[in-house]
Specification:
By secondary structure, the chain is of the alpha+beta class. The protein is built from 11 helices and 6 strands. The chain has one domain: Glutaredoxin (3-Layer(aba) Sandwich), CATH 3.40.30.
């Protein structure tokens, strides 16, 4: 399965360059938006881990619809459901290409306390760094072909300008590159993608509610209708 993912990542590079629960001590409801837990599979959950409605969002950092959801729909959804403890929001990666892989691993840098801020930062600056994929050098692309994924991600980090973007999050280039070389982070992101494919996730963003894939739900309004 990992070999299949590696072949998929290599093939998907061409496309992206063209585009240039248990028991928990319950905090007060006002604290849910700063409550973050990490699952055994490495996904990040925002909000009440014991919420009656558990929402999972499968996303890609190179997906424009995902960026739009994060900027324009997610805030109201979080205010209505996550802040009140009615629902939790779990973020899982659905990696679409190697540049997406770079961003997904980078989002994890700094641990769970940094994750949702990194997540927002990468989406809010998506047009800046995604538009620079044409700058990815032949040498960096060769690392992808050689399955040197850490080398590819580190080269991409430099060449599409992710360094200054992550410095705004208090993460130095050296720290970011150490994160990109973290095999556990790579394995978690690829594992979530493979699990999503097995569940039938075919596009991003896609949502699960209490473990059930909602095939035709792609907006906060559609989610809200199912959570009330």
């Amino acid at each position: 399965m990992m070999l299949r993912m590696k072949k998929y990542l290599a093939a998907a590079f061409i496309a992206v360059t063209a585009v240039s629960a248990g028991l928990f001590a319950a905090p007060a409801p006002s604290k849910w938006l700063s409550t973050v837990t990490v699952t055994a599979k490495g996904a990040h959950i925002l909000g009440n881990p014991a919420a009656p409605k558990k929402v999972v969002e499968y996303l890609s950092y190179t997906c424009s619809h995902c960026a739009d959801f994060e900027a324009n729909e997610s805030p109201a959804f979080k205010a209505q459901f996550v802040a009140t403890g009615k629902a939790s929001l779990e973020i899982r990666n659905m990696v679409l290409n190697p540049v997406d892989l770079t961003a997904a691993v980078l989002a994890r840098c700094g641990g769970k306390a940094k994750f949702f801020g990194n997540h927002k930062q990468l989406f809010s600056t998506q047009s800046l760094w995604l538009g620079k994929t044409k700058n990815i050098s032949a040498a960096t692309q060769e690392k992808l072909k050689a399955q040197d994924y850490a080398g590819f991600m580190i080269g991409t980090f430099d060449e599409i300008g992710l360094g200054p973007i992550m410095q705004q999050r208090g993460i130095t280039p050296a720290q970011a590159k150490a994160c990109l070389a973290d095999k556990a982070a790579f394995t978690a992101v690829v594992g979530m993608t493979e699990a999503g494919s097995a569940l039938g996730v075919r596009g991003t963003p896609s949502f699960l509610i209490n473990g059930v894939l909602q095939d035709h739900v792609h907006s906060a309004a559609e989610l809200a209708a199912l959570l009330k």
